[in-house]
Amino acid sequence: MLNPIAGEIFHIDKPLEMTSFLAVKKVRNLLCRKLGMRRMHVGHAGTLDPLASGVLIVCTGRKTKQIDTLQAGIKEYIAWIRLGETTPSFDMETEVDASYPWEHITRELIEATLQEKFTGTIEQVPPAFSACKVDGKPAYKLARKGRDVTIRPKTLVIDEIELLECNLPQEPTITVRVVCSKGTYIRALARDIGEALDSGAHLYGLRRTRVGDIRVEDCESLDHLLDRLSNEKYVPVEQALEELLEQERIANRERAAAEKAARKNAKDKNDSNV
């Protein structure tokens, strides 16, 4: 039986054109309905943009306390990048705003640039169309109003970056695999790659294939998860709450015993020094 109150962790292959918030909301609403609860703690370990698919880890109940640890895991992405064009959001959320030459770019130049400039520790300025806070407000809210947004660079680590496919010279598109640290914006990486190639670039597709040890092959579709949760059996709410209370009692007794032992050891040590 599932015990969402004590905590469950679900691995979802988030579909395109859905926000991470909506995916979490769908899970929360179903669980609340099944358990007859008005509210429940449900959260995700790392946002995926609506125009990205792939691994989204969703935690419930007490397992939401593990979110910081889970989202700190190394991420892996497959990114589809179009060279020679930029957009304000660095992806296809906004229209192309400028075009640049790309005919000088070769596969060899791309591979050398990726290894020399985008491997190891790098500095990255997050997109204006992001949740980064500017004067206490999400940057994207200001950017969508046409406001100028200044965001400080962040230090990131790119563990691996690999050119998987290059369609030049027939078409200015490339496919890149990226293994990186928490907080990396692949949209901004596409922008920076375009600039490093003396051109422009934006993201036209993104798939997160790994978070920590969880790979996309380990995930289920959101529809499959919701269908499964609709037919699962659950630990009754009263039982789940009582079990949590008993766990807290045990933890408190163990904590009190450890503190008592520590005080006794300290006193014995002081007495032996007299």
Explain how this protein is built.
- The structure is a single chain.
- The protein is an alpha+beta fold.
- The chain has 2 domains: 9-71 and 216-234, Pseudouridine synthase, CATH 3.30.2350.10; 75-211, Pseudouridine synthase.
- 35% of the residues lie in helices and 28% in strands.
- The protein is built from 7 helices and 14 strands.
- Strands 1, 2, 3, 4, 7, 10, 11, 12, 13 and 14 form a 10-stranded mixed sheet that branches.
- Strand 12 and strand 13 form a beta hairpin.
- The model has no long low-confidence stretch (mean pLDDT 91).
Put the structure in a nutshell.
Helices cover 35% and strands 28% of the residues. With 274 residues, the protein is of the alpha+beta class.
